[in-house]
Amino acid sequence: MKITNEHLISRDLSWLDFNSRVLEEAEDKMNPVLERLKFIAIFANNLDEFFMVRVAGLKQLKPDAISSDSAGLTAKEQLDEIRKKVSALVEKQYACMNNDILPELKKSGTMILKWTELSDAEKDNLRKFFQNQIFPALTPIAVDPSHPFPIINSGAIELAVKLKQDNSNKTVQSFVEVPPVLPRFIPVASAQYKDARTYILLEDLIIENIGLLFAKCEILEVRQFRITRDMDLSIDEDGISDLLVHIQEKLLHRKKRNVIRFELIKGGNTVFEEWLMKKLELDENAKYYVPGPLHPANFFELISKELRPEITEEAWPPLPVGGIDDRKPIFDSIKKEGLIPIFLPFQTFDPIVRLLDEAAEDPSVLAIKQTLYRVSGDSPIVRALQKAAENGKQVTVIVELKARFDENNNILRARKLEESGAHVIYGVSGLKIHCKSLLIIRKEEGAIRRYLHLSTGNYNEKTARIYTDIGILTADQDLCSDVSALFNVMTGYAAAPERWNKISTAPYDLKEKFISLIDRETRLSDKHTPGRIIAKMNSLVDTDIIERLYEAAYAGVKVDLLVRGICSLKPGIKTDNINVISIVDRFLEHTRIYYFGNAGNPEYYLSSADWMPRNLYKRIEILFPVEHAGTCKTLKKMLDFELGDVRKGRILGKDGIYSATAAMGGKNIPSRSQKKTYDLFREESSKI
């Protein structure tokens, strides 16, 4: 068969539907109020990235261009639809935040005050604070013949000031950036709200005292606004002699990239607004009015300051990993168990850090090879690798410089590693290194033995507390041999093997492997023993795989797709055998699990890859089988929990619209999959 646009949903419109589901978590009154505010911040942060990358990319296309992932829509049609959807979503976002969440937060004892709500004594104290702590960090920038229009930073809150100088009737303009390095939420020592924790927004405090920046001037108007620039770092590596230097140059030029979105507070002088638009070279389609406050993603700061049990969800502290004996080297535990699975964030990330810490000090360890895609700023992983290199181990680290928005962070980490003596490889030309692998080579009783960690997620101890991912520790020599060969491909000129022992990899044979597994289900399926596919991933876009899934469904295969974000497959076209569920909950669903029924002999796979063209063609990815019976049993339980989640699950209908899978109940009803998964591991940990 050949799929048509009837079977598809535009990738970018599907992404907006995902962010709409994030916003639903903010609107859900069953969630504690601070959790709801967190989802407001996540929604805003997601939308920023969407404009910086996806909208920026569409604006670079010709208006009548039709991309392969657009479901037949032209670039202009998508941009028009995006504007309509975004406008409606942002209106819902601010209505939820200003009319519901912040008043509810106020009832709980946390208040954001306006200047007019403060007493004279409170205003005096804040003026002193402003002069001592804020005024020195502010820089007014004039706009006149000797001061050209400045480069406005993407993402920062800006104050456009219209003013008149003394003894002059001439109106002039100036800008003041609200410094992102300063706290956005300024505590107010309030005598009138003694039982509350009170704050004022930094920009409000600056605006009320802005006259101090413009001595002997009359302030006529102050407008708050914020721009979003094209921040996609597209790199054509042909002809580049030094990728590191080239990326650094690209990062410097980001400040001058095109403005994609212009947000401003409603109200004010339209002539002043038009002047701003003209100077920024924007049309009306880039302008979005908001009631304020700007940049709700900054509410993460308030959330961190106001963490209290009564307004947050109960804590789910990471649980210990089974099979690891704390009294012995971790290598002994891996040898004894054969395979040790780690389920993040339900279980702790500590064994990965411990593995590297022990390897760095172990005289039997000869070499360490690792890929790094996104790591934290002060990463214990990087510190352990540095220590290993300083101790004389052969340390090779492949650092992906092109990890979007982490480019500068990865450059800094790479330099630290190089200074410690590690061999640092900056990716592979034309491909992103997205696989998550750690290989340790150890000499034991005169022979070489390899130990391996593979994962669906990054080596980042911070995201390991909020992303769901699964990794394995193993000494399986077939897997180790495969990954060793893959490292040779990534670091040198070795060709990929014609056949791997157990893994499949992109861009070499991963797509073919997925298609062969789907086709096998189609081939084996009959009315007595229908085939079964359960695929859990972040995004589904690849049209070849969508076509194969529909062929399987038409052959009677039951296809359940757990797709957190973008899903270009529209279910229900001449079959009810395809079911699509998206789950948005307290942890970001990030695991990729692929299950194939195989006529009663089910196979389980984990991967770093989604079913997207970029994962299958433009990245180095790994798909690896899980053959450990106990782990397979746990994976099936987790998948069943998610397929039955009527608390946080949303089901995609044949009309392309997501809806609740059932009437919502209490916040911890039995069907909430993340809670059931945590309880499963808590019960197991009690037996350790």
User: Which CATH architecture of the largest domain would you pick?
Assistant: 2-Layer Sandwich
Q: Considering DSSP H and I runs of 4 or more, what fraction of the residues is helical?
A: 25-40%
What is the CATH class name of the largest domain?
Answer: Alpha Beta
Q: Assign the CATH topology of the largest domain.
A: polyphosphate kinase like
Head-to-tail CA distance between termini: 52 Å
Instruction: Please provide the count of β strands.
Output: 27
Described by its quaternary structure, the protein is single chain
Provide key terms for this protein.
10-stranded mixed β-sheet; 22% strand; alpha/beta; polyphosphate kinase like; Endonuclease, Chain A; 688 residues; 3 domains
Q: How is the topology of this model organized?
A:
Elements: H1 11-27, H2 33-59, H3 75-107, E1 110-113, H4 120-134, E2 140-143, E3 158-165, E4 171-177, E5 185-188, E6 197-201, H5 202-208, E7 217-229, H6 243-253, E8 259-265, H7 270-279, E9 287-290, H8 299-305, H9 330-337, E10 339-344, H10 350-361, E11 365-372, H11 380-390, E12 394-399, H12 407-419, E13 423-425, E14 432-433, E15 436-444, E16 447-455, E17 467-474, H13 477-491, E18 504-506, H14 510-524, E19 532-537, H15 543-554, E20 558-563, E21 578-583, E22 588-589, E23 593-596, E24 603-607, H16 613-617, E25 619-626, H17 629-643, E26 649-652, E27 658-660, H18 673-685
Parallel strand pairs: 1-6, 8-9, 11-12, 12-13, 14-25, 17-22, 19-20, 20-21
Antiparallel strand pairs: 2-4, 3-4, 3-7, 5-6, 7-8, 10-17, 11-15, 15-16, 16-17, 18-25, 19-23, 21-26, 23-24, 24-25, 26-27
Helix pairs in contact: 1-2, 1-3, 2-3, 10-11, 11-12, 14-15, 17-18
